[in-house]
Amino acid sequence: MHVFADGISKVTLSNGNLRIMLTQSGADDSTVEAGTMIIPASQASNFLNGLANSLKELESRLKEAREAQQTQQ
What is the superkingdom listed in this entry's lineage (predicted)? Predict the structure, then answer.
């Protein structure tokens, strides 16, 4: 399943699970709820660190691609 989200409205901890309420920007600057990501609290740190590391790696690849494109011009 794919969920498009461009914001977070609320983060709670309940019954040992981290619940992250995801939102989308709607028409007329409204906010629409997109769903809830539920992560076991015991895995939240690993999950978030993995996500952060993946984003850093992606940023590095994009930077390298931009630099390679500039040198080819």
Answer: Bacteria
